[in-house]
Fold these 2 entries.
Entry 1:
Amino acid sequence: SAETASATLQADKPGPQIHRDVFGQFAEHLGHGIYGGIWVGKNSRIPNDGGYRRDVLAAMKAINVPMVRWPGGCFADEYHWRDGIGATKSRPTKVNTNWGGVNEDNSFGTHEYFGLMDRLGGSTYVSANVGSAPPAETAQWVEYMTAPQGTTVLAKERERNGHAAPWKIQYLGIGNELWGCGGNMRAEYAADLTNRYAQFAKSANGPMLKIASGPSDSNYEWTEAMMRIAGKNIDGLALHYYTRPRDKNWADKGPALGFAEREWASTMAHTLQMEEFITKHSAIMDKYDPAKRVMLAVDEWGTWYDPTPGSNPGFLEQQNSVRDAVVAGLNINIFARHADRVKMAAIAQMVNVLQAMLLTDGARMVKTPTYWVFDLYKPWQGATSLPITLTSPWYHKDEVAVPAVSASAVRDAAGQVHVALVNLDPNRAMPVSVAMTGLQATQASGRIVTGPTMDAHNSFDSPDAVTPQPFADARIAGGTLSVTVPAKSVLVLDLR
Ligand code: AHR
């Protein structure tokens, strides 16, 4: 009927693998993203493992964090790696001009980043300074990180600083937002520079994929120029796209909590534009790279609202609610549909910044609704995507009209099929019927993330207001999965 979403899931037509790095994180030197949020130092009273918060390490490991991008963002194009090595006491204090004008004491540097990744596991993603440092600086940093033990002067310096063995760099970012905070460049100029920096950055420790600074939103001219001029010398092109309520603007993005349904609706509409941007950037990439060798890396995505009242506006602190959980589910479903081209992504940002997984306050920590969505989607990491097409009833609010239900499906390494259904309608539960082929399953159950209000969230006083709940209200009969997806929810079903 018109009020039922109907879908077909073809388990016998497996699609591309969903790379686990699509569930990557971004951790910038920004506000309490690193200092206080991840790194408290060895002498802190906050429980830590060599300076890293134990609560944050445990929480991130529990969602199998596959990759962390560092040190920026805008910070990357002002960062000089030599400031962050050697004895902590001798490291220079500088000003973080991008984010709040606060002092940056460089106590978290290259060794501390790789120490974090040793503890978390997962791929490393280091963003190099193209905007304000010469190519030799990038080349030497890569050599410092990757040269074999005891070989070059830089390898020996790394050893003196406490790490004899080389590290692996899975991804090297060639600058960040070179059209903006990375140097206000024209696309052609940025592409020329990309060729130059890529040429001299040579990993001595295994493959290192080079990710060019890519477009934001619908800047297709940027993608065109980058692919035409630098496409052969890069392995990935970054795409940055942030969600804010569509009827708002950068100066007035609206609050993270206490918003009207109108803002909910326009946030959803704005999020769904991700599909169009990925599709159109991919089409341009297809012209230059039909074999899809170069990935589209959505290495900054997530919600961006007005900062928490009373916080330093340069710290980009915001609360995280059921609205953010639904935004995360929609974006992940879009990435899953584009697994052929989107092989890496990073939500902005991991702790205390924008759409964070975790919020900290002194020794306290809460897991956000977005964190729980990443927990629900763990089976998607490295799984085989399965085609699922869906016709959904519309959700209408004022001038917004968007499909209410979004879906994705995977088969994990053990052979189990999982289906994600997101209902963005904040008022109506949505019956969904999924006709399935190539599947013997007879039962479906799983977990759901939702809450009593659109802005239900976890606070330090009430950290478990929004957590995944078991969901068993689904059935399979005659090869069809039937389920009513509650309003404003993200539901993941495991089929058996
Ligand atoms: O994530 C915050 C900032 O947003 C990043 O530093 C920058 O790349 C983007 O503009």
Note: Residues 28, 72-74, 176-177, 300, 348-349, 354 surround alpha-L-arabinofuranose (CB under 6 Å).
Entry 2:
Amino acid sequence: SETERRQRIAAAREVLGDDVLVLGHNYQRREIVEHADHVGDSYQLSEYAADSDAEHVVFCGVTFMAESADLLTDDEQTILLPSMEASCPMAGMAEALQVDAAWERIERATEGDVVPITYMNSYADLKAFCAEHGGLVCTSSNADAAFEWALSRGDTVVFLPDKHLGRNTANAMGLDSVVEFDPWADASSGDLGDADAVLWDGYCQVHERFTADHVADARDAHPDATVVVHPECRPEVVAAADETGSTATISETVADADREETVVVGTEIHLVEHLDRWHETDVVALCGDACMDCNAMRQVDPNYLTWILEGLADGVDRNVVSVDPDVARSAEVALDRMLEL
Ligand code: 13P
Ligand code: SF4
């Protein structure tokens, strides 16, 4: 039962004290975030891990986030992921091997120098690939600065894996020559020419489900509401919204809203529910049905969190996420370039 689980988690944490830090991504369910020392967006959580002296960091999120935490923390800190099945499908849409295989074709099809940018939602070996090809990492909050950095060093940005974040960033910057690259297409097809940006064909299966009709329906139902959406949404959804931002920005929008206001939120349903619970402002899901949940995030079951914490209390490290040192060296270069933006 939930009561028994709470008692077991409390007992394990009593034994562990400051040796453990529990982090919960904004998309984790209530039964997880209530046990987290910090709740936040993917990048904030890595910073919390890096700022902490805790020897063990239990990262309730998906694999690429745990890898990023491993890259940003000391070698003495161990990152544990409650479920190794919690893998973001978008990160899997641009595997380093596949990008490597396509890279020569992309370079051949573009007229100038190409610089890769990978979104944080990617595996460490793709981050390493980007560093080794003169590129960097970005988050949804600094994608525009990353584009500027890349375009000051080359002629074309290759943006991976999220075509919607890439397109939304290019639109906001007024770049007009943006093309999609189909990694499955025949090698002879696709002349990318002198495009400012080439978009890899990846997307988030949760955010892609929102449509401009959902925004129109929400405006009919809540005419005075502010509509805020995540930049992984389709460009027409971002264009129809009032504000766009990372899960941290969405949370700030709700925190800053008046009590009487309604905020319509277009992102994973658990964050919408948390914000409605945590604030007096009326928080409504854009397309309020259960389909908007992330099944990768959902893999982190509260019973697994209990299992990890009880293991640690018994001196057993389960589900350790550790990036290979050679990959980590290059991936850290890509992250450092982002931090210097
Ligand atoms: P944030 O970095 O905004 O928390 O987003 C992570 C994510 O997986 C969005 O779908
Ligand atoms: Fe990946 Fe989308 Fe889930 Fe975020 S919400 S972890 S991008 S599938």
Note: The chain is about 45% helix and 15% strand.
